[in-house]
Amino acid sequence: MDKIVPMKNETEKTGFPTQDWELTPSDIVKELDKYVIGQEEAKRIVAIALRNRWRRRKVMSQLREEILPNNIIMIGPTGVGKTEIARRLAKLVNAPFVKVEATKYTEVGYVGRDVESMVRDLVERSVAMVKQEKTQEKLEEAKKATEEKILNILFPKKTKSISFDVDTPETVTDESREKFRELYRAGYFDSKLIEIEVESDISPPIQILGPFGMDEIGSSIQDMMSQLFPKKRVKRKMTVAEARNQILKEETEKLIDMESVVKIALERAENMGIIFIDEIDKIASHNGRTSGPDVSREGVQRDLLPIVEGTTVNTRYGPVKTDHILFIASGAFHVSKPSDLIPELQGRFPIRVELKSLTEDDFVKILTLPENALIKQYKALLETEGIQLEFDPEAIREIASIAAKVNEEITNIGARRLHTIMTTLLEDILFDAPNNIKEKKITVTVKMVKEKLNKIIENVDLSKYIL
Fold first, then answer.
1. HSE (CB half, 13 Å, CA atoms) of 299?
2. What is the SS3 assignment for 332?
3. Cα–Cα separations (whole angstroms), residue 194 to 142, 155, 191, 244
4. What pLDDT, on the 0 to 100 scale, is given for residue 366?
5. In angstroms, rounded to a whole number, what is the distance separating the alpha carbons of residues 257 and 271?
């Protein structure tokens, strides 16, 4: 019987954020509750999927490669939290995440992006994340190097050789240099003009025109050309404050080992990456029909199949295996059903979860409970103008009631309806602030909500355009 062996040093070797991966499924659900209201079943499913990735990394290597992620299909109307759950999930564990629309891909032979580009996008995101982490690690070291470089420009170190050149900048002793260092840190020289060498921003544009997939080829050619013809360095005059940012960027780049960054990024993309495929129902063949434009839809599904099953995709940073990337698909499935997808693709998404439509009570919670709740956002915006915005509980209930009613009568766009209603409700306040508002405390009441919104709701034609 195989034993489960904890892999102690792998986290350090691959650069995986250990503390983020120690979250249990219940911890993950608690974190998601801070941003997404309801949809408990969907949260449980994604929490288990995420924890299973951590569990897989603890299994012995012989069996570990055989344990594949259980991809998920989220079914539900727009605006109920499908994308938000996936995005917050990735952010929770600092995993590379990309959201793509299934409708922008076409089968081979048609104009459009090829499905492999979603994996390339994931790798680009992973590289950017790792590079940002390494930048933070090297920031203090880069700041010290930047400080030395600027002080060398302002006050060159004293040399032992005798110079008769009258144009040579005044040199300073070590003791004086330390005093100047203190003045530099205090910002005393920030407005002083100095001359530094920077990379020229002007470079000949290279544009590749051709069929699908050429955008990736174009970026590869640009990388090759930049290595063959490096950018020119030109001298420019700027203030010390401006030069500091420019030099800091260059010094940080020098300290970062890009080979190490790419190695860690590829590892993360392969083992932690999450690809969210939205609107997958739009590429399903309605009622099993396979004629007309549905041929193209089925072609996209067949192109998507090897990516989800597990294949190797060539990227500008090297080959990437997709076997252990977690795919989360979503769609409203109003016209089609998940069973309308080709059987092979259905088999690669074994877990299906249905998200429920939002109710009036859900809207009340969405407006008040999440850390990024709409009411909190508008309060923060008006606080910058010195205005304190308050909402009566009855007014919040009325806004939720109107949102639920409009969703039922016109089109159900879920929580996004609250954005349109809140914008219409607070339009005058947002426009008049700060000059034309004398009161520094404004309370939104039920009366104000009804006056602002009831006329629009009663006029069905108008509400279609405004709400």
1. 17
2. coil
3. 19, 11, 9, 11
4. 93
5. 22
